[in-house]
Amino acid sequence: MKRCIKNKILLIRDAQSNEERISKSLRIEKNLLGLEEFDKAKTVMFYISKGSEVHTKMMIKETIRREKKVVVPVTKLDQRELVVSELLDLDELKLGAFDVPEPKNPKPFPVDKIDLIVVPGIAFDKRGNRLGYGLGFYDRFLCSLKEGATILALAYDFQVLEEIPNDHHDVPADIIITESQIISPLKRG
Length: 189
Fold this sequence. Notes:
The protein is an alpha/beta fold. The protein has a single domain, classed as Rossmann fold (3-Layer(aba) Sandwich), CATH 3.40.50. The chain contains 5 helices and 12 strands.
């Protein structure tokens, strides 16, 4: 079931033109920047987009411009975990695990200082459940967070379904932002 949903959504996501992705990503960015949780956050963790994902690089630049700390994940394959590195400039990036951009020289950052975590995913539902890429790196990381950190997912409208299957170890998003809506299924902390 999960595999079927992932394949279907990835086909749709990959079929969009680059112009569509950029246009939708700009509308998603506008929704993010207008969000109270974003405004209050001192430190924001972003995933660095690749392929057909919602583009985050302009969001990262704007967040740095607004003098907020930006941190990004670094994948430690041997430990099967994500660690966090501060990012001062997008020019600091190289391709890391799974061809995901990450800092060339990671600057460790304490996870308890993160206020807002922007997570990737393939599909989401209106209860905040998330289908990721299947390796569990984000779920393990999210389980280790302090109370009060807001988990936020960025998605195109078609990635949000009525319901998706979830397991007990899956960590839901508090907020999902698309190009046309902001969904707040959970209020944790």
